[in-house]
Design brief:
The structure is a single chain. The termini are far apart. The model has no long low-confidence stretch (mean pLDDT 97). The protein has a 7-stranded mixed sheet, with helices on both faces. Strands 10-11-13-12 form a 4-stranded antiparallel sheet, covered by helices on one side. The protein has a two-stranded antiparallel ribbon with strand order 8-9. It is of the alpha/beta class. It is built from 12 helices and 13 strands. The chain folds into 2 domains: 124 residues, Aspartate Aminotransferase, domain 1; 248 residues, 3-Layer(aba) Sandwich (Aspartate Aminotransferase, domain 2). Bound molecules: ligand 0PR. Ligand 0PR binds next to helix 4.
Length: 387
């Protein structure tokens, strides 16, 4: 630290140099990210609420009300307006909270000490973190030939130690939606907690269903679903960090609440203590500003661009891993390896990601990607193929 502070201008000039090294979503070159430019209104509101701390909600009653309204509004979107939950940092924290609730509940009910969770092989790595932090064993269920959770494999892994089963609505690598109605029935029969990770899919599937896409139910409309992760900082256009965890019943929050004697709330069930109210306020603002129709339009645009990309790739001789279900396209080349292709694309300024199962180039068609970007990308791909 300098003994004497720098001037504002010096600070801004220096920061500019750092900022210039960052990539920008608007360039269209970020093709493998599940984040995008937050909406300007959400950014403004975020800055306005930077000082509010939801860790001590009695001091920030208005912001707490905004958090409650966000949870209720998302609950309505996901089929149950009586849900409870929190606006937190993202999918990782949400999944951790869900598994913590399930583990604590199982401990309370049948004195399981450690327990096991069953997740599909396609689950996000945050479940490995959750298992590690919470001391539960992670069991992986295999996938069927459409890369969705195999129900027989889940059934085989269920034991007296199972504390939760996880289904994914919008897998990280392929954007697949697991057969959640079947998982729900299975978990009701077996009396097991079912958590749905809709971190990515939560802000697009409801709109695609409205448009007539054939996607099965995945939310609280299914009686077996106990909790859902949904991230406004992915398809919801809210600034990072913003995730939400929703529980069907209050008991799931209560089972992990800790006494906080000197605060304005006496019990706390979030993992984080001091936590920003800015995310809750920004989500409230953007959901009210966009309305259902605003998100419908974003979903429609992203899916049109996804179909456009898929068509162009096929025509240029690339192989799609499978038909895109959401706005994620994964493909391979018949001529060069995935690693080499990713490297060559990087040399041309494109940052794609490489999926691990199956190994393929993965493009997440977020709202910042336009048809013009796709046309440039396809041109470069063709040049790579022909060189
Ligand atoms: N669940 C699912 C289904 C996810 O896809 C992710 C993140 C999470 C949970 C965890 O969410 P948080 O990262 O908010 O804690 N999926 C992205 C991924 O791993 C996150 C990401 C976003 C990575 C932007 C890179 C990036 O540029 O691909």
């Amino acid at each position: 630290m300098h003994r004497k502070g720098l001037s504002q201008q010096e600070i801004f000039d220096q920061l500019q140099q750092y900022h210039e090294k960052d990539m920008e979503y608007v360039s269209g070159n970020i093709l493998g990210s599940m984040c995008t430019c937050a909406h300007p209104i959400a950014k403004k509101v975020y800055c306005d609420f930077l000082d509010s701390n939801l860790g001590d909600p009695g001091l920030f009653k208005g912001t707490k009300q905004l958090e409650d309204e966000v949870i209720k509004n998302i609950g309505v979107l996901l089929g149950d307006d009586a849900v409870c939950g929190h606006v937190i940092t993202g999918g990782t924290e949400a999944n951790l909270m869900a598994i913590r609730a399930a583990r604590n509940l199982a401990r309370q009910n049948n004195s399981i000490d450690s327990g096991e969770i069953i997740v599909p092989k396609s689950a996000h790595f945050s479940f490995k973190k959750s298992a590690d932090i919470l001391g539960v064993q992670l069991k992986e269920a295999s996938l069927d030939d459409e890369y969705k959770i195999d129900l027989n494999s889940v059934q085989e892994q269920i034991s007296t130690k199972t504390v939760a089963v996880v289904g994914v609505a919008g897998t990280t690598e392929l954007g697949k939606v697991d057969p959640i109605p079947e998982l729900s029935n299975l978990c009701l029969d077996e009396n097991i907690y079912l958590h749905i990770d809709a971190a990515f899919g939560g802000f697009i599937i409801p709109f695609l269903k409205e448009m007539g896409y054939d996607i099965p139910e995945f939310d609280f409309r299914l009686k077996g679903v106990s909790s859902i992760t949904i991230d406004p900082h992915k398809m919801g256009l809210t600034p990072i960090p913003t995730g939400c965890i929703l529980f069907r019943e209050k008991k799931f929050l209560e089972v992990m609440s800790i006494e906080t004697p000197y605060l304005t709330e006496k019990l706390q069930s979030t993992i984080v203590g001091t936590r920003s109210g800015a995310s809750a306020a920004a989500t409230w603002a953007i959901m009210n500003y966009m309305g259902f129709e605003g998100y419908l339009e974003i979903a429609s645009r992203c899916m049109n661009t996804t179909d456009f990309l898929a068509r162009k790739l096929r025509r240029a001789g690339f192989r799609l891993v499978s038909s895109p279900e959401l706005n994620i396209v994964t493909f391979t080349s018949p001529k060069i390896s995935v690693t080499e292709l990713a490297q060559k694309l990087k040399q041309k300024g494109w940052v794609v990601s490489v999926s691990s199962y199956p190994v393929a180039i993965r493009i997440v068609v977020m709202p910042h990607i336009s048809r013009a970007h796709i046309l440039r990308f396809i041109e470069d791909l063709k040049n790579i193929h022909s060189s």
